[in-house]
Amino acid sequence: MSGLLRVPLFDDEILISHVSRTARANGTSRMAAFCTDLGLDARAIRNGHSTAIERFATLLGYDPDRLMAQALRVCEDGSTFLFGHHFQKGMLCRTGFRYCPECLEEDERYRPRMPGTRRYLRARWMLKSMMTCVKHGRALEIADGQYKGQHLSDICLWLDAPYKNVSSPALLSEHRVPTPFEKFVEIRFPGQSTGNAFLDGLPLPMTIELSDLLGTCLLFGHSYHVKEIDGNARRRALDEGYHALARGESGVREALDRIVGHVKPGRVGGGQALYGRLYHVLERKPVAYDWLKAILRDHALACRPIHPAAPLFGKVDVGWTTLRDLASEAGLSEEVLYRHLVVLGFIGPGHRRAKNLLIAPDISAEVVASFRGALDTAGACKILGCNRRDFDLLVESGFIKRLLRQTGAGEVPGSLQRYSRQDVHNVRRCLEPTLVEPAADMVSVRKAIRIAGCSRAEFLDILLRKRLRKVARLEDHPLLASLLVDAKELRAVVAGNYLRSDCPSASNG
After folding, report:
1. Which among 38, 54, 166, 319 would be 20 to 30 A from 350, CA to CA?
2. Angle (CA) 169 173 176, round 5°
3. Could you tell me the pLDDT band of residue 144, with boundaries at 50, 70 and 90?
4. Contact 366, 328 (CB under 8 A)
5. d(Cα 129, Cα 91) in Å, to the nearest integer?
6. Averaged over 235-263, what is the pLDDT?
7. For residue 212, which of 278, 147, 166 has the smallest C-alpha distance?
């Protein structure tokens, strides 16, 4: 140990404050000059380099581990370790210092300390989020900026500045009631428990950052600009976000509900569209924030349509489908599909049609199941070789199923209606095996119906249920117009109350 004078290192004091006070106790107010005289690197001590701090501890006879624990250790990425907490770049005041005037006056009144070294910098004052002295209920003041830059390490000079023109700076300071957030940080910064298991389980820097993010989004909307928020507004935001976090995951979800409430109801997209800056910041956070990303992802999927191509902390299966993609999968044009969705009541008639219109998962599944491979009227008539009138009779008789149900608005327009391809082919298969060569006693369907005294629909039912043994067909005619039947056989079948059981219909599969 050298013959240098020592000053006490307080439990809540930052190391550069202690080194500055040691320099003053030994006759200089310049920490850099003091370190140079001892062969030490002042910059290295200020940035928390272990080798320089260990040399200082050896010269003065201090415990190097304790000095390292209270040092401000700067990392290559600009983040900082302070009192066991890892703060990201921008969370600490490193180019200017704040102080509580009443704390400094208490220091000055403590006579056992060496004059000129009584005032010291509390580590918690370096937190930008701490704007109030919890002990005295005073707003933290900013030290005079005349020493900025050249004497950043000369804490004693910074803390002398308030006394240059005023004998008692506390008389001019603002009384302020500490917020619950500030009280929380006051307890957690030295590592004590607050009694809130959820918050105590989070790193303090994470709690501070999330309180800031949630609070500003809650108070100023999800797309606020950081520079537009002043100190008092940010203080309110920190407390607002803290109250949400203090209620645990349920509080976070309630906060997300409020944030999404700022977003226009018709707006869809991904995490950025719904949560703005909150999502933007979380997207760049490491795995320690995955618990919150999972909450936000689940919340987004539950509360709003999510565009399939929109990121939500990576690619997720959102279930929602665009109008364009659904039309392609169902085998319909976008125009026809859109009109179908309006007719079925899935979307309102005034809904803006766009290629990125999102369709809910249950609707998409119903549309695909109904329309994949479905036929319109023209396509079905072509397969059967019948005219529109005959086809309508087949539909009304139940042999071919309409895929679109009738809505409250009335009957589905024929141009939009679609039919089961399977039913159409079933009808065709029912016809083909019954055909025989035309005979002299066979007549047209129209004449046979008149002779038998049945309706056209009844005839179709008898025909497709294979109750007629003799059916012939002429080439190049529509389905019913091409058929020849035995009128006597038809009349006998009608008179005998024909059974309806042989040919499968749309109703029984």
Report:
1. 319
2. 150
3. low
4. no
5. 8
6. 93
7. 278
- The full DSSP string for 118-171 is S---BGGGGBTT--EETTTTEEPEEPPGGGTTTTTT-HHHHHHGGGTT-S-GGG
- Report d(CA 33, CA 40) in Å as an integer: 10
- Give the residue from 478, 477, 449, 475 showing the smallest Cα distance to 463: 449
Place of tokens 């990303």: 293
d(CA 8, CA 63): 12
- pLDDT higher than threshold 80 for residue 371: no
Residue 213 is which amino acid? L
Q: Do residues 228 and 210 lie in contact, with contact meaning Cβ atoms separated by under 8 Å? A: no
Residue 139 and residue 131: Cα distance in Å, rounded?
6
Question: What is residue 508's predicted lDDT score, i.e. its pLDDT?
Answer: 45
Q: What is the dihedral of CA 26, 30, 34, 40, to 10 degrees?
A: 150
Query: Six-digit token pair at 339?
Result: 């009109």
User: Of all residues in the chain, what percent carry a pLDDT higher than 70?
Assistant: 81
Give the Cα separation of 327 and 355 in Å (integer): 10
CA 322 from centroid of its chain's CA atoms = 19
Neighbours of 112 (CB within 10 A): 6
Contact assessment for residue 185 and residue 204, using Cβ atoms and an 8 Å cutoff: yes
> 5, 7, 29: which is closest to 18 by C-alpha?
7
For residue 180, count other CB atoms closer than 10 A to its CB. Answer: 12
Question: Which candidate, 439, 432, 441, places its Cα nearest to that of 463?
Answer: 432
Angle, CA 68 vertex, CA 67 and CA 73 arms, to 5°: 130
What is the distance of C-alpha 393 from the center of its chain?
Answer: 52
The predicted pLDDT at position 183 comes to 96
Using a 10 angstrom Cβ sphere, with 0-12 exposed, 13-18 middle and 19 or more buried, the burial of residue 233 is middle
Joined tokens for residue 110 = 């403590």
Residues 6+ apart with CB under 8 A from 235: 131, 132, 179
How far is Cα 260 from Cα 274, in angstroms, rounded to an integer? Answer: 6
Q: How many CA atoms lie within 13 A of 408 on its CB side?
A: 3
Give alpha helix (H) positions in 385-470.
388-396, 421-431, 445-452, 456-464
Q: What is the DSSP letter of 3?
A: S
Handedness of CA 119, 125, 126, 132 (dihedral sign): negative
pLDDT digits (tens, 9 = 90+) for 46-82: 999 999 999 999 999 999 999 999 999 999 888 999 9
SS3 363: helix
